[in-house]
Amino acid sequence: MSLDSATVRRIAALARIRVEDDELPRVQAEINGILGWIEQLQAVNTEGVEPMSGGSPVGQAQARLRPDAVTDGDRAEQVLANAPDRMGAWFGVPKVVE
Amino acid sequence: MHPTDFTLAGALAALEEGAISSVELTQAHLDGIAKLNPRINAYITVTAEKALAQAAESDARRKRGDARALEGIPLAIKDLFCTAGTETTAGSRILKGFVPPYESTVSQKLLDDGAVFLGKANLDEFAMGSSNTTSAAGPVENPWSRANDPDTRLVPGGSSGGSAAAVAARMALGATATDTGGSIRQPAAFCGIAGIKPTYGRCSRFGVVAFASSLDQAGPVARTVEDCALLLKSMSGYDPKDSTSADMPVPDFAAACRRGVKGLRIGVPKEYRLDGLAPEIAALWDQGLAWLREQGAEMVEISLPHTKYALPTYYIVAPAEASSNLARYDGVRFGSRVTEPGSDLRDLYERTRAAGFGQEVKRRIMIGTYVLSAGYYDAYYLKAQKIRALIRRDFEEAFRTVDAIVTPATPSAAFGMDEKQDDPVTMYLNDVFTVTANLAGLPGLAVPAGLDGQGLPLGLQVIGRAFDEESVFAVGRAIEQAAGFTALPGLRAGA
């Protein structure tokens, strides 16, 4: 199955990546090339197969529950230290609400 | 002997005997970096002053009789591991200038064991690539070159290309690396060194910039199998900060290297004899099996029937997870920001991400977004998760009858920087032998085993049962010993 340019635009918008008009044909061709190659998976019979989620190999212990307790915090300075537009104790962004 | 010619184990012995100090060892590696890095570009950041201070402290500690497991050993740290106070870029423009306020668990463990950090190693952007040509810091050059064509600059493999090139060129005694589809093993094979991706969960992922969380694992690259064992021992262990890290005892991997392979059953997967497999690779594989047979192991043909679906499965699962993980780069909390006058918040996101990410990263984010989008999730992502379960089951069946599996590490030797760049899928095929271990969560080690007709290194891969890195090390060491791989790259410190 091949994606048309409107679908590629929609995906780029969902991914919050700006794609310029002159890039679109190349991006579309590359994505379609990859999706075409992936298409071979439809031939595999997966009837009744439980999907594997997470990366744990067979036989590994299940993830444990930890106590529901605060173990970290009060690090506002560190959290803000790399902000591209810090405004006092906040992250600055363009005006969202009029 | 030049100080950069030590193995890691050899350097530890020399430090212990007082034959060399950590300051001398560190300075020799820094001199090598100063001379070679302008060409090889294996390091994005060199922390010379910090390294020498750490080394001096380490020498003092050894003098007091307090030496730890890796006391005074100079290492390179892949620039995907967050290092407190030292810029960490993941090879991306979007993280330019990012200085983590915290240390990754793996690098902290190495510091706790006395290691000295020389700097941050180059990599494919966000660890996405097999050639280290997608880094915002520029490509890394493989220190090896073709005997009959020395002017063609070769790739070191990827994504841990800087780590592998630094170790091969003797600009570090070892390095941290990460492997999501082959990013430790393929560059190790291309650069003629050893590298292991341990079992998923063996090393904590805390503080490692995330690519595909169900596949990412940290591991070491070094010049010998034993050196990898020493590093992995320090890097491993349960970490409450990573819910997928395994609460398992960490064995003495170096001791396992000396076990031998007598009586071990070695699986030889028939599906890995790909159509068109290079004759040199097939011959090296046969040679490796013969070496193991001579040392008392038994070869068993096995079948891993879903092998051919592994790469396309990976190229659904990994981009899907990447699209989710990389959503955090929004130009608001950290990293770079790009806006135009009048940009609203959405425009800020879109411009920041368009300018901050490279082509391959954007491609994968968009593929991942598509396969997770409403209406396509079942057809792509869920289907891939089911095939992943079948691939894992293939291995489970095989490991009922064998103790380890031996395959080629890569389908070719290192290629030229301008080769294989036209079509993303051609580049993806580099990981055909390595990606299955990531999907199944199993340990895989690459070990240098010979040279091709042009004098370039070729590697073999050993895959083991979950949490049985010990057998992997035993088999890897047996191959290494039989191969007697002593060839050296043309570009190296102390040469």
From TrEMBL, chain A:
Q: Which domain of life is it from?
A: Bacteria
Name the catalysed reactions. Answer: L-glutamyl-tRNA(Gln) + L-glutamine + ATP + H2O = L-glutaminyl-tRNA(Gln) + L-glutamate + ADP + phosphate + H(+); L-aspartyl-tRNA(Asn) + L-glutamine + ATP + H2O = L-asparaginyl-tRNA(Asn) + L-glutamate + ADP + phosphate + 2 H(+)
Alphabetically sorted, this entry's keywords are: ATP-binding, Ligase, Nucleotide-binding, Protein biosynthesis, Transferase
| Major enzyme class | ligase
User: InterPro entries from the entry?
Assistant: Asp/Glu-ADT_sf_sub_c (IPR036113), GatC (IPR003837)
GO terms for MF: asparaginyl-tRNA synthase (glutamine-hydrolyzing) activity; ATP binding; glutaminyl-tRNA synthase (glutamine-hydrolyzing) activity; transferase activity
Instruction: Say if the entry is tagged with keyword Transcription regulation.
Output: no
Q: Does the keyword Transferase apply?
A: yes
EC number(s) for this protein? 6.3.5.-
Mention one GO biological process in which this protein takes part, according to its record: glutaminyl-tRNAGln biosynthesis via transamidation
Stated role: Allows the formation of correctly charged Asn-tRNA(Asn) or Gln-tRNA(Gln) through the transamidation of misacylated Asp-tRNA(Asn) or Glu-tRNA(Gln) in organisms which lack either or both of asparaginyl-tRNA or glutaminyl-tRNA synthetases. The reaction takes place in the presence of glutamine and ATP through an activated phospho-Asp-tRNA(Asn) or phospho-Glu-tRNA(Gln).
What PANTHER family does this protein map onto? GLUTAMYL-TRNA(GLN) AMIDOTRANSFERASE SUBUNIT C, MITOCHONDRIAL (PTHR15004)
Recorded family membership: Belongs to the GatC family.
> What does the subunit section of this Swiss-Prot or TrEMBL entry state?
Heterotrimer of A, B and C subunits.
What's the name of the protein? Aspartyl/glutamyl-tRNA(Asn/Gln) amidotransferase subunit C
From TrEMBL, chain B:
Gene Ontology process terms (BP): translation
Q: Where are the transmembrane segments?
A: none
Gene3D superfamilies with a match to the protein in the record:
Amidase signature (AS) domain
Q: What is its EC number?
A: 6.3.5.7
Domain Amidase residues, every copy: 24-472
Keywords assigned: ATP-binding, Ligase, Nucleotide-binding, Protein biosynthesis, Transferase
Q: Which SUPFAM superfamilies does the record associate with it?
A: Amidase signature (AS) enzymes
Ligase is among the record's keywords: yes
Catalysed reaction(s) here are: L-glutamyl-tRNA(Gln) + L-glutamine + ATP + H2O = L-glutaminyl-tRNA(Gln) + L-glutamate + ADP + phosphate + H(+)
Q: Name one GO molecular function term.
A: transferase activity
Active site at K78 (charge relay system), S159 (charge relay system), S183 (acyl-ester intermediate)
Disordered: annotated span: 130-149
Q: Spell out the GO cellular component terms annotated for this protein, sorted alphabetically and separated by semicolons.
A: glutamyl-tRNA(Gln) amidotransferase complex
Q: How does it assemble?
A: Heterotrimer of A, B and C subunits.
User: Could you tell me what this protein does?
Assistant: Allows the formation of correctly charged Gln-tRNA(Gln) through the transamidation of misacylated Glu-tRNA(Gln) in organisms which lack glutaminyl-tRNA synthetase. The reaction takes place in the presence of glutamine and ATP through an activated gamma-phospho-Glu-tRNA(Gln).
Q: Which family does it belong to?
A: Belongs to the amidase family. GatA subfamily.
Protein name (database record): Glutamyl-tRNA(Gln) amidotransferase subunit A
Species name = Falsiroseomonas stagni DSM 19981
Q: Which gene encodes it?
A: gatA
